[in-house]
Hints:
Mean pLDDT: 90
Structural class: mainly alpha
Order of helices and strands: HHHHH
Shape: globular
Distance between the termini: 49 Å
Helix content: over 70%
Radius of gyration: 16 Å
Number of domains: 1
Largest sheet: none
Amino acid sequence: MRNTKQQETTNTIKTLEIPKTKLARRAGVESSRVSEYIQGKSLPTATMVKIESAVEDIARVWTSLGIKTDLDDTEGFAKLLTYVNSVLAGEQFAEIAKQQEAQS
């Protein structure tokens, strides 16, 4: 049975055309588990969380940069993810500061 999070993650995988084998490698699970996840099959919670987390990371990097980066370069991808996360955190901080200034 597919839950809402699983459906959203599956849609992201399909929309961004994330290769299953590369997603599996990034998530640290077998490729067959990614296929089962996409088919809506029930998997252990830990496996589902790993897949969902990997998809969130890939989507964050790809959509923020507007390009599909190489998922085989794990070190490079990790650096890009750190960069994107820091940029997004900076944008959130700036927005909070702007809201607080407006309330003053």
